[in-house]
């Protein structure tokens, strides 16, 4: 379980195929500022919002194995580049964002990302199947970052929601690199997930 408060920006340094084209990949990630001294083999770390298990580690790097299924259902894990990192929360930790499972529900597309005053407006188009889970002032996780929806509109292409990013978020996450057309990992709010289930079962 995570909170959506990014602890560090890491860097995927190496991507190695685990076998055939249908196999997954092994990622080596530099994470000097994350603090790996209290991370053990088998612990969970969210990488761009996707929960992964530490298979190897050193003082400032760790390795994870990513299944083909996970690669197919996420973005940003199959190539060298910067990624958002968060260690799994512990009982008693402060929840600065919201409860995040690290299970990506879908891939969104950035429609607009531009400065508005001292902040930035991020507008994302999601898939139609996720439309019912988004709400005004509700929570959403974008590439592992806990964010609040400011506006939402249902369009023929799917739900479009708008988020305000403060300077701190821009400075301390990889969201600064987004552009119109970029793809992002989305995780819906767990409360919305349970409510949908409760309402659908008679």
Characterization of the model:
- The longest helix has 11 residues, at 190-200.
- The protein is globular, with a radius of gyration of 17 Å.
- The strands form 2 sheets. The protein has a 6-stranded antiparallel β-barrel. Strands 7-8-11-10-9-12 form a 6-stranded antiparallel beta barrel.
- The chain has helices spanning 68-73, 167-172, 190-200, and strands at 8-17, 25-30, 44-47, 50-57, 61-66, 81-87, 106-116, 119-125, 139-142, 145-155, 158-165, 183-188.
- By secondary structure, it is mostly beta strands.
- It has 2 domains: 8-87, Elongation Factor Tu (Ef-tu), domain 3; 106-200, Elongation Factor Tu (Ef-tu), domain 3 (Beta Barrel).
Describe the SSE topology.
Layout: E1 8-17, E2 25-30, E3 44-47, E4 50-57, E5 61-66, H1 68-73, E6 81-87, E7 106-116, E8 119-125, E9 139-142, E10 145-155, E11 158-165, H2 167-172, E12 183-188, H3 190-200
Antiparallel strand pairs: 1-2, 1-6, 2-5, 3-4, 3-6, 4-5, 7-8, 7-12, 8-11, 9-10, 9-12, 10-11
